[in-house]
Write a structure and sequence with these properties.
The chain is of the alpha+beta class. It has helices spanning 3-48, 137-143, 163-198, 200-210, 227-274, 281-309, 325-333, 361-377, 423-428, 436-446; strands spanning 61-65, 71-74, 98-101, 107-114, 155-161, 321-324, 345-349, 356-359, 385-392, 395-401, 450-456, 460-468, 484-485, 492-493. GO terms for molecular function: phosphorelay sensor kinase activity.
Length: 495
């Protein structure tokens, strides 16, 4: 089922319910109004009696009855059927309109009122319009009524047939469904037409997405300046980000394959050379040392790739703990005492700062080792490499500064991308993989922090790691880091 059909069906069901409810309410209200009009006409007939004995519409009849239900006098002509003759008028003589049925099954609306004596309006008028005199007692006796026939207990009643009202309601009950069905059908046709036109841009975008090439493409903008236009812009923005990520993944895969093949090829070549002829124990030791170096390089590349490939959820730090960043960094530098550049390494705490942060000690040690190894690799021996700790608003900063060749401004935006190396570093610098800074950035982000690079060619570089600042804990004791190796082999780090 298409979206247009689903939207149309939902709308038409709602419209059908609305029309049904409206028709039912209109039918009920019309019936109440017609009966109310009839009741008001009955009451008006009684109120005008005896001055005016006929109703304005001619559909109301009236009569005066005694308690036994015998008619004393009444209207003549159409609608004057004696529907109350012989009835017990006690239950209906209460000034409330009631519906009754006659012997033929016809339904009537009746309103009765006790008038007592000659009624509150006096005796009924004669044919000349004047007051009609009561008949003499002897005439009453001859009729069998006897004296007191029009004494208290007389009832004035007015009635009208419900057939016209019920006929109008039957016509309304037939007309309302037909009108509702006609409106529903017309709305269905118009709604389906405009629904298809309104969703035509979405259909076009879906067709474009279906025929879009995997590695490139954009959805056409509908130009409607509404939610569909915003959807197209948002989706195209997502496609742009996916294309960038896909391109980076391709580069990453190609570079990773190259970096993995190089040490593997060296290992295979060294093994083949070693097997060509018998060798002395010293030669085998040299070959094994070379194989160990190549295997270590391969291991560092694999570890770095695995760390970079971890999902964000896997990069959480369950063993993170609060630590004094200055005390920890100073203690960690002591592990570099046997490094060839140990004399060039210096530690400074700006203003005696003792910022505290929450970190995973092995990963933080790996980050610092990567930055130190990078600084030692791209700065000449004898120049200082400074590890500086400072406290900034809301952050604890750890910076590594060198006086090396620096990084060209064009390469700074990509310096933390995997396998990226500046052109000058590839030409002049020592061999490297290009994963150390990428791993450092991932570790900083896993700690909820950031890392930035500042550099000026010919004057050196400065890498600054900013971690969230936490409240100091005087009970915390900084443990001496143990002597281990970082996963990418950048140098010793604390555990």
């Amino acid at each position: 089922m298409t979206l247009v059909t689903r939207v149309s069906v939902a709308f038409l069901v709602a419209l059908a319910l609305a029309l049904s409810g409206f028709s039912a309410c209109l039918y009920v209200l019309a019936g109440l109004r017609l009966r109310l009009d009839l009741d008001q006409e009955l009451e008006a007939t009684l109120d005008r009696f005896p001055e005016r004995r006929e109703s304005a519409s001619g559909r109301v009849a009236w009569a005066v009855y005694d308690d036994a239900g015998r008619r004393i006098e009444g209207s003549t002509g159409a609608g004057s059927q004696a529907v109350l003759d012989g009835r017990d008028l006690g239950p209906i003589a209460v000034d409330v309109a009631k519906t009754i049925a006659d012997r033929d099954g016809l339904r009537w609306r009746v309103l009765a009122r006790r008038i007592g004596g000659r009624g509150r309006h006096g005796p009924p008028p004669d044919d000349r319009g004047g007051p009609r005199r009561p008949p003499p007692p002897e005439k009453e006796a001859r009729k069998g009524g006897g004296p007191g026939r029009d004494r208290p207990g007389q009832v004035l009643a007015a009635w009208a047939s419900l057939e016209p009202v019920e006929a109008e309601l039957r016509w309304l009950a037939l007309a309302l469904p037909l009108i509702s069905i006609g409106l529903w059908g017309l709305t269905a046709a118009i709604g389906h037409h405009f629904g298809r036109r309104a969703l035509a841009p979405l259909t076009l975008m879906a067709e474009s997405a279906r025929n879009m090439p995997f590695d490139d493409g954009r959805l056409p903008s509908p130009g409607t300046r509404d939610e569909l236009d915003e959807f197209a812009r948002s989706f195209n923005g997502l496609l742009d980000r996916l294309h960038v990520a896909l391109e980076r993944q391709r580069q990453f895969t190609g570079q990773a394959s190259h970096q993995l093949r190089t040490p593997l090829a060296a290992l295979v070549a060294a093994i083949d050379v070693a097997r060509r002829r018998p060798r002395t124990a010293e030669e085998h030791e040299r070959i094994l040392d070379r194989l160990r170096d190549d295997a270590g390089r391969l291991w560092r590349v694999v570890e770095a790739l695995l760390f970079l490939a971890r999902a964000d959820a896997d990069a959480e730090l369950p063993d993170a703990e609060r630590l004094d960043l200055a005390a920890w960094a100073a203690g960690h530098l002591r592990l570099w005492s046997d490094h060839g550049r140990a004399a060039d390494l210096h530690f400074e705490a700006s203003g005696g700062a003792r910022p505290w942060t929450r970190a995973h000690r092995p990963l933080l040690a790996q980050l610092l080792d990567n930055l130190l190894e990078n600084a030692c690799k791209y700065s000449p021996p004898g120049t200082p490499v400074v590890v500086r700790v400072a406290e900034e608003p809301g952050a604890a900063s750890l910076a590594v500064e060198d006086r090396g060749s620096g990084i060209p401004a064009a390469d700074l935006p990509r310096i933390f991308e995997p396998f990226h190396r500046a052109e000058s570093a590839r030409r002049q610098g020592p061999a490297g993989v290009g994963l150390g800074l990428a791993v450092a950035r991932r570790i900083a982000e896993a700690h909820g922090g950031t890392i930035v690079a500042e550099s000026e060619p010919g004057r050196g570089s400065r890498f600054v790691v900013r971690l969230p600042l936490v409240k100091a804990d005087t009970r915390e004791v900084v443990r001496e880091p143990g002597l281990t190796r970082s996963p990418d082999g950048a140098g010793p780090h604390g555990g």
